[in-house]
Amino acid sequence: xxxxxxxxxxxxxxxxxxxxxxxxxxxxxxxxxxxxxxxxxxxxxxxxxxxxxxxxxxxxxxxxxxxxxxxxxxxxxxxxxxxxxxxxxxxxxxxxxxxxxxxxxxxxxxxxxxxxxxxxxxxxxxxxxxxxxxxxxxxxxxxxxxx
Amino acid sequence: xxxxxxxxxxxxxxxxxxxxxxxxxxxxxxxxxxxxxxxxxxxxxxxxxxxxxxxxxxxxxxxxxxxxxxxxxxxxxxxxxxxxxxxxxxxxxxxxxxxxxxxxxxxxxxxxxxxxxxxxxxxxxxxxxxxxxxxxxxxxxxxxxxx
Lengths: 147, 147
Hints:
Chains A, B: Belongs to the PRA-CH family. Chains A, B: It is an enzyme of class 3 (hydrolase). Chain A is mainly beta and 147 residues long. Chain A has one domain (30-145): Ubiquitin-like (UB roll), CATH 3.10.20. The first copy, chain A, is built from 2 helices and 8 strands. The first copy, chain A, has helices at 50-59, 142-145, and strands at residues 30-36, 42-48, 63-66, 71-74, 83-90, 96-103, 119-123, 129-133. Chain A has a 4-stranded mixed β-sheet with strand order 2-1-6-5. Chain A has a two-stranded antiparallel sheet with strand order 3-4. The first copy, chain A, has a two-stranded antiparallel ribbon with strand order 7-8. Strand 5 of chain A pairs antiparallel with strand 7 (119-123) of chain B, so a sheet runs across the interface.
């Protein structure tokens, strides 16, 4: 089968087309998964509005939209830990992007960890969920970085 | 600094605790990023409600909640392409999980591709966004798998 989009697909077909037509949700957001370009590990999950997506494409730095602060946000603007985007991908229904980044300072999480995913979900002897710290070393002290 | 949670943190502290306290959104969902345990590539982004999360933890197979169909969904129940979960992780604010899976049949996307992220976002000569197919080979024919 063809490795490219079928010739029968319209250029702006959501799944098979080659035109960017992001499907923003009711809040104007798409999901962004950010991975470390070297290790492949998931660093964080965040959201982009149309402006954040455009700025990321144009600048090559990761921009997000903070739901809690309700504002556009250039990753690293407070901490200096900028994310340089090496590759951007779009999913089948165009409501999620995956960016592979070079993480400035090595730490993406506001808690100082490399990744936001520093706890594994395990089960205890009774089968109940239990969290286990993994890769939970802090690479910076949040109190010193975010003043 | 310590690799485990600070002793000063309460066990049920959202960021530093070791108790699972998922923060579901207004629709009762958390985001799930699913990666291939071998390649590390992002296969898909989907959502879990409380029941999907519990069933995933208990069964070791990936369960999701389909927003479009508004129903609980065991990945592979139509296609047979089940996802075996090798590791689950939780993010800092407990509103996203990352699961590393062994993808049955090798393809996670309903279009037949290995990953839902089969298009790269590039820019054309004028700087406008342009999608380029990458890893876009179909491993199965959706018309034959979903009848």
